[in-house]
# Entry
Amino acid sequence: MKEISMEKYRCIVDLPYPKSKVHPRLSMHQRAAQFAPFAALTGHNVATSEAQRYLEEPLELADDAQEKLKRKLDYLASIASTHPRIIICYFEEDGRKAGGFYRECQARLAKLDAYRRVLILEQGITIAFDNLRALEVMD
# Structure
């Protein structure tokens, strides 16, 4: 290794550090930010995380399960005016890509709209009959 000779720099080593009258001194945080990683592909991280997000496909109910659910819906329609408390499992479709996920909730029924084939819960959630997977009437 070549040894550095201090002889060349002896005349400037002890000089005071120059301070700018125009530019204020940067804080340690601002100085460190100069060396932060550069994101050349803006939005790439969001796109890859969206692609990695797992969604389920809706399962088709067997004929006997569909019949059982239909009987429960008929019973619920007959007592809908009492606003019973229900427990339901339903499939919620994802708005951004194909698929979705199953949700289970316990709520009070606000309205059963047989014409539109939807349940409307007190929280304002609307669930299509076709997305229902399980239904239990509490009251």
Notes: The chain has a mean pLDDT of 86. Residues 63-79 form the longest helix (17 residues).
